[in-house]
Each structure stands twice: as C-alpha cells, then as structure tokens.
Specification:
This protein is 47% helix and 10% strand. α5 crosses α7 (106-137). It is mainly alpha-helical. The protein folds into two domains: 2-104, no CATH class; 119-282, Cytochrome P450 (Cytochrome p450), CATH 1.10.630.10. GO terms for molecular function: heme binding; iron ion binding; oxidoreductase activity, acting on paired donors, with incorporation or reduction of molecular oxygen, NAD(P)H as one donor, and incorporation of one atom of oxygen. It is found in: Membrane.
C-alpha cells in the first residue's frame, strides 16, 4: 500500500483496502466469464453483472480518495520536497497515452492500482506458503538452508540483509524450486495471436486466443528429473537444470513470471521478497509439523492456486530469547 499510494495509512484504511482487494480476488472465478462474452452475459447474466458493478463501486469508494489525495500533493508542489518518496500512483498521474495523447482517467487508475496491489501481495503470499510447506515437509532441506544462512551471517546477527542473500545460492534454489513446483498462477493471462501461426504442429488462426500452462511446463518429465519432487539442489552447481533462466530469454523450461516483453514487471521485487522472508523465517525458527496435522500439498484454485488446506506449522525458536509456541499461515 505504501509503494502504491506513497503514504502510511491508518490501520482502518488498510483493512478497507485489504477487504475490497481480497473480495475481488475471491470473486474472480465467478465474474471471469463476464470478460469473454460481455454483450451476451449482460443480457443473460444481468444479476451477476449487477453484483460485479456494485463490487467495483465499493472498491472505487475505497481507492479513489487515496488517488485524489496523492494528486493534490503533486499539484500543490509538495512532491518537489527532499523527503518526498515517489509512489506508483505518481507515475500513473504523470503518464500520457501516446496514441490517444491523453492522461489516464480515474477509472483506469483505480484498475491499475488494484492490479498492482493484488499482483504484489497475493501471488507472493501464495508462493511463500508453498515454499514454507515444503520446508516443513522436508526438514533436511530446511536444515541445509539454515546451515547456509549461519555460514554467511553467523549466529547473532539480527536480520539478513539484501547483500548477504546474494551469497546464499541454496536460498535462491529453494525459492526457485518452490516457484517451479508450485507457481502461484498455473495459467498466464490470455494472449491474442496477431497473425496466422503454427505451433507444435497446430495451426493458430489470427486473432485466436491462446494461453500457456505454466505449471505443466515446470513439471515436464522430459525436462526435469523427478519433476514432482521438491529438490532445490537441482538449481545448484553446474548441471543443465542449474542453468535455467526463469525470464525465458535463453530458452523456456519454467516461467512462473511469464516471458518476453509481457513478463511480470515485478519479478525482481517478488524474488527479493521471497528470499528475504524465507531466509529470516528459517534463521529465527525451526518450522515443524503440528502434531496430528500432516502437511497436505493438495491444490485449490482461487485467483491463484493455493493450498486446499492452509499450512499449519510449529515455529520453534532457534534462540532462547524468543518465545513462540505455534504459528499458522
């Protein structure tokens, strides 16, 4: 929220933003069909359209005042002060559409802010839960990661910093394996073909809609050895799998963030967040299964593909000064 709007909000405001955004995510399966045949569904699914438009109005009522507040700051000249931090909204207010030679309207900015908030939180939180679930389920992997962390920063340092994470190849391998085995989005956003093409022996007509099954690409047994196993070591060393480029610029073996010009612009931030959270959580706590609660890796489709049974784990402090009995995601 701070990155989006540039201001620290009151707790009640943050709860309102969280509510409207979470509701939008959970409603995605119900309202997704409205995108494909709008003229047809506006007649035959009128009630569903009314529900969607009401949800949109309530979302706008929460986000638009924050956008307008930021606009007033920019227009007042306060954005020139030294302590001013540029936000995502600032860039949108300044953006001009070259073909139409106009600025974005408020409705468009609300939509873009909504995308920014959901893409920057839900996908990362989902990926983090899957990674931690596999670390709980595979304590030997968790211990190897902890050993690497200790070897880089020692026992007493309070918090792992970004520069230190660059010296932790196994940490990155754990995150990459989590994204390969459990990409938050199993499908990319639909793409439209600009001209007739042929792909894998199939003819794809101009203006045809296509999609890519990201999950199955990362689980292809023709590419990955034991693809359904969680094995971070596949990304360590000199082997073929270790050289995988997740941006897709040197061949595509996994693409949790998409590939090419339309790759997720938040890839760098997402990787940083995931490595940071995983490293600091494993540094401070040993994560174990709750007695009688075996970790279940069954998937469930929401906006992202989440754990059908949310992770429950015991967080055992690695240092005596911490007292934590249990923690659930």
């Amino acid at each position: 929220v701070l990155m989006c709007f540039g201001d620290k909000l009151e707790e009640e405001q943050i709860k309102q933003v969280e509510f409207v955004q979470r509701r939008e995510l959970l409603s995605f399966p119900r309202f997704g069909i409205l995108n494909f045949l709008p003229n047809f569904t506006k007649f035959f699914l009128r009630k569903r359209w009314d529900e969607f438009l009401q949800m949109r109005r309530e979302q706008t009522d929460v986000l638009l005042p924050l956008i307008r507040s930021r606009r007033r700051i920019v227009e007042s000249g306060d954005s020139e002060k030294k302590d001013y931090v540029q936000s995502y909204v600032d860039t949108l207010l300044d953006l001009e559409l070259p073909e139409e030679k106009r600025k974005l309207n408020e409705d468009e900015i609300v939509s873009l802010c909504s995308e920014f908030l959901n893409a920057g939180t839900d996908t990362t939180a989902t990926a983090l839960e899957w990674i931690m679930a596999n670390l709980v389920k595979n304590p030997e992997i968790q211990e190897r990661l902890h050993d690497e962390i200790k070897s880089v920063i020692g026992e007493e340092e309070e918090e792992i910093e970004e520069e230190e994470m660059k010296k932790m190849p196994y940490l990155k391998a754990v995150v990459l394996e989590g994204l390969r085995r459990h990409p938050p989005g199993h499908l990319l956003l639909p793409h439209r073909v600009s001209e007739d093409a042929e792909l894998g022996g199939y003819k794809v007509p101009k203006k045809g809609t296509i999609n890519f099954n990201v999950a199955e690409i990362g689980r292809d047994p023709g590419v990955w050895e034991e693809p359904m196993e969680f094995k971070p070591e596949r990304f360590v060393g000199e082997g073929e799998e270790a050289a995988v480029d997740i941006t897709g610029s040197r061949g595509i073996k996994m693409m949790p963030f998409g590939a090419g010009r339309r790759i997720c612009p938040g890839i760098g931030l997402a990787m940083l967040h995931l490595e940071y959270y995983v490293a600091n959580m494993v540094k401070e706590f040993e994560w174990k299964e709750v007695e009688g609660e075996e970790v279940d890796l069954t998937e469930k489709m929401e906006f992202t593909v989440v754990m059908k049974h949310p992770l429950k784990a015991r967080a055992v402090p690695r240092r005596r000064r911490h007292i934590v009995n249990a923690m659930a995601f």
